[in-house]
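Predict the 3D structure for this chain.
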Amino acid sequence: MPILNDADIDSFAPDTSTPIDENRLAVLALTLTPNLGPRRIVDAIAQLETPGQIFALTLIELEGLGFPAEAAQFIFDGKARRAADDGYISRAAT
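Done. Predicted structure below.
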């Protein structure tokens, strides 16, 4: 399974000059989700066609990606997306 290198990580960095796309928002949301470390995030993204799909998964599907119940619930409830939206807006404002 490939591991993200610096170039891959940089490709997910938010560009505050343009609206954030769904995939970048998803990666940011995953990094802001409690109990999800880099390994779980990389493994989950590798199982999806695009990172943005994370927002459309059911609770069972999120748990099927190997996420702890608390993390899966955080994403499913929309809290991860709200945290990512807030984080992106805060960064854009600075």
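The radius of gyration is 13 Å.
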